[in-house]
Write a structure and sequence with these properties.
single chain; about 210 residues; alpha/beta; five-stranded mixed beta sheet; two-stranded antiparallel ribbon; 5 helices
Length: about 210
């Protein structure tokens, strides 16, 4: 049998697209406790073998056996929640990040589902598409009351929303300067929540110092 593993490529695409929007020759560090792999199995004639179960696979990392926490034999899509911290962002940076997110979401497949939550100090806008700059400007000038306006609260809400999406492969992509502003949820509460629902989070953090001149 031939095993052809592939790490979920959507988030590698996200890193390259969004990072290129505001960084130059800067390393990006991504850490997750859950590694998702897509695997196809074929016989010596190249025919796909179907009906395999978790016990048919042996997963090792540097020779050490690893547990398979989640297994699905279906060709399932992705469920992606995108959180964009728009606090005090210059118009040119907002335009560039939104364009990068549009390119990312444009590469998703028909089975994939996503939403975008953009917030500032007044509140947030959550849509099932990537909004344009004018839509953001109009809505975030007078957002719905009670919507998240701080980093930890926005991620917490996005995790709950992503958890309700139907695809079993669920992820969060967070674009932020990394500064929280008086969230109701603490970092400890957020970490506990993400661990409880087993939600991998990919964070792209930027500051004025690492923006492209």
């Amino acid at each position: 049998m031939k095993y052809v593993p592939a790490f979920t490529a959507a988030f590698l695409t996200a890193v390259s697209l969004v990072t290129s929007a505001f960084t130059q020759d800067r390393p990006v560090s991504v850490e997750t406790n859950l590694l998702t792999m897509n695997v196809s199995v074929s016989d010596k004639n190249g025919n796909y073998i179907r009906g395999l179960k978790k016990d048919d696979f042996n997963l090792r990392d540097n020779g050490a056996a690893q547990a398979i926490d989640v297994f699905s034999a279906e060709d399932s899509g992705l469920s992606i929640g995108i959180v964009y911290d728009n606090h005090n962002q210059a118009d040119d940076l907002t335009l560039t990040v939104l364009e990068a997110l549009k390119r990312l979401c444009g590469r998703l497949g028909e089975r994939d589902h996503y939403f975008v939550s953009v917030f500032n100090d007044k509140g947030s806008l959550t849509t099932d598409f990537v909004p344009d700059a004018d839509q953001l400007r109009r809505h975030l000038a007078n957002p719905d009351r009670g919507t998240p306006n701080s980093l930890y609260d926005a991620i917490f809400a996005a995790a709950d929303r992503a958890g309700k999406l139907k695809n079993s492969k669920k992820y969060l992509l967070v674009v932020t300067n990394g500064t929280d502003r008086s969230s109701d949820h603490s970092l400890k509460q957020l970490r506990l929540r993400l661990r409880n629902i087993n939600m991998p989070v990919y964070v792209l953090s930027f500051t004025p110092e690492n923006r492209t001149a």
